[in-house]
Write a structure and sequence with these properties.
CATH architecture of the largest domain: 3-Layer(aba) Sandwich
Helix content: 40-55%
Order of helices and strands: HHEHEHEHEHEEHHEHEHEHEHH
Number of domains: 3
Radius of gyration: 31 Å
CATH superfamily of the largest domain: Nitrogenase molybdenum iron protein domain
Strand order of the largest sheet: 2-1-3-4
CATH class of the largest domain: Alpha Beta
Shape: globular
Amino acid sequence: MGPRKTPRGNRRRLQIVLTSVLHLLDMEPIKRFFIILSVLVFGAALFLLNRTSQEFVPQDKLNVAASFYPLAHIVAEVGGQHVSVKNILPPGAEPHDFEPSPQQFVDLGKSDLFIFNGGHFEPWISTWEKGVSTKSGRVLNMVDELARRQNGLIERGGEVDPHVWLDPVMFRQEVEIIRDVLIEIDPKNTPAYQANANQFIDSINELDQRFREGLRECVKHEAIVSHDAFGYLARRYDFSIIPIAGISPDEEPSPRDIARIADIAREKGLEYIFFETTVNPRLSETIAREVGATTLVLNPLESLTADEVQSGEHYHVIMEKNLNNLRKALVCQ
C-alpha cells in the first residue's frame, strides 16, 4: 500500500489548484482563451490516441517466408489472416538460378517460419545455410519432409526430382504438412488452420478428379516439354514426357539431342511442342519448326509472371489451363 494522504497534504494541493485558477482569471481574455483551447485540444488528442491504440491494435501474425510461388500460395491459403507471407522469388524469375539479395538473406533470419522446396531446386539455399548467422525461427525443407513421410519421390541418377507440386495429390500432401507446421508453431489458431486447409484440400481433390477424367481417354500418350519438370504429373495421369532440357532449364540439350527429339515427334505424330512462360521458348520453337508442329504452354508454376499476378491467376487457374492444353496435345476425348 502507498502512503496515506494527510489532511495537510490535501489542503496543499487545493491551494495549488486555486492559485492556478486565480492566475488564469487575472490574464487577459485573449491569453486565457488560447491557454484553455490548447489544453482542450491536447486532451482530445490524448483521448483519441488512447482509443485508437485500444481499438485498432493489429492482430499478431506469423511472419512466413517461402522460397517460391507454390509454397507461398499454400501458406496464404492455409494461414489466412493469421499469417504474413513473403515470396522470396520475384514475379517472372527463374528459381533454378535465382540468388537473393543480401537484404533478403537478412530478412529470412527475421521470419518465424521459412519454407523451401529442397531437392537442390534452389541452389542458393546452401549459401544461406553456410553464410547466415541468424536463422529463421523454424525451417521446413519440403522435399525432405515428403521423403520422411515416404510419399513416393522420383529419383534419377541419385538425384530427386523436386517438381512435386505439379501433381495435385502431392500438392495436397504439401498442404497437410504446412497445416501441421503452422499448428505446431501457433496452436491458438488451430481451428482456423484446419478449416482453411480442409477447404483448400477439397478444391485440390476436385482438380485431381478433373485431371483424371480429362486425361482418361487419349489418343496420344507422349508430350514433348521444355524441361524435365512434369514427371510427377505424367506419372499420376499415365502419360510420358520427353524433356528438351534437364531438371533445370539451363541444362541445354546438344544438337544430337534436339535431332533425336525431333525424330520422336515425327515418329509419334506429335503436333504440339510445349514451352514455358518464364523460360526462353527458342528450343521448343526450333523443334516445332523442324517437324511442322505448333507450340503450346505447359506451365511448371515455378514462378508467376507479372501479367499472371496482375490478372489474379493462381495455382488452380493455371493447372486448369495446363489440363486443357494437355487434352489438346494428347488428343483426349
